[in-house]
Amino acid sequence: MQFDLIVIGGGAAGFFGAIQAVEMKPTLKVLILEKSNKILSKVRISGGGRCNVTHHCYNPFELAHYYPRGEKVLKNLFKSFHAEHVVNWFASKGVALKAEDDGRMFPTTDTSQTIINCFVLRTQALNIKIEMGKAVTRIQQDKNGLTISCSDGATYETKKVLITTGGSPNIQSYNFIADLNHTIREPIPSLFTFNDSENKFKDLMGISVPSAEVKIAGTKFLQTGPILITHWGLSGPAVIKLSSWAADHLHQSNYQFTALVNWLGQAKEDEIRAMLVDYKSSRRKQRVLSNALFSLPQRLSERLCRLAEIDDTKTWQELPQKKINKLIEFLIRCPFEIKGKTTFKDEFVTCGGVELSEVNFETMESRKLRNVFFAGEVLNIDGETGGFNFQTAWTTGFIAAKAITS
Known about the structure:
Layout (H helix, E strand, L loop, with lengths): L1 E7 L3 H13 L5 E5 L6 H9 L4 E2 L4 H5 L6 H10 L2 H10 L4 E3 L4 E4 L5 H13 L3 E4 L3 E7 L2 E6 L4 E9 L11 H4 L5 E6 L2 E5 L11 E9 L5 E8 L3 E3 L1 H9 L1 H6 L3 E7 L6 H14 L15 H10 L13 H12 L1 E10 L6 E5 L4 E2 L4 E2 L5 E3 L13 H17 L2
Parallel strand pairs: 1-2, 1-9, 2-6, 9-20
Antiparallel strand pairs: 3-5, 4-5, 7-8, 8-9, 10-17, 11-14, 11-16, 12-13, 12-15, 13-14, 15-16, 18-19
Helix pairs in contact: 1-13, 4-13, 10-12
């Protein structure tokens, strides 16, 4: 049987692209090939099992700013299909989304199964065929169209192909795409946490600061937001966002670097110094360790004081300038010697993949081989944490479907 479209990859971009294509052209015969025995696996585990569908940002230009790689092309793509379109599409299928305070959007049911059910029911209703355990090894073009070969010996004929295999830490996963004369940027981790080699805050694991700043020493890379102390080092949105923007730099440094944490967010040194001087007069007889500094968690405040070599007995009036200077350093430039990273193994996000210059972003079609299209994280596009990578899947899947059916 010859298909009009074969989608390679049964993830978010693959399902959305296939569904969009048949919704636009109901006569289309479509097949989804998935190499594993599971479909929509990243959808299932995203957002702790709730599925962070998109981000509550309806301005295409602002939305594109959340992408360390792909911002330029996404500015134009988002004009056609952005977060509001995603919300409306799901609503039309009976799936309501809600926005949380940080902008992340989830189904109101708070379970990813709602999204999975939506996709599965749509594929059934649209007669989209799904085959699992089909690892594609080759795509060949002849005068009759395209032939797809799988590792189990199965072959399929189709007029058009949409490649949505997602990101993979293994470059061999891209071999069949490289065989089409496409350049593959080395896939490397994009969203991860930092491993503190000294473990000097390990006993404070679980403590979080809602508005801190973390910077990579010697660079311009920095991010602000919540930071979480873990048993292995540093995590939280600020750290994970920083890992995304600095992914290439950190990979080149073999994930060995110094992270500087400003526990007081974007507070400046002169401002902090003035407040500590005020403490010396307003809290003269109070012990420095007794009350948390600047509304920091008490145990964290104590630890910073001890790192500044301030003992239990010292009152503010007894505190010498030298100790104040040390305390300021640990408050706004607290060093962590990072050696290594911790990735979310099942939720891994990569930067790398198909070189963007080799794709026509008006149609998502390959510039190397006609009738071959791309969508999702298989491209060298990735966003911060917060629903942005799924948004890329929906947008590129939509654009590809529109071109495929035109």
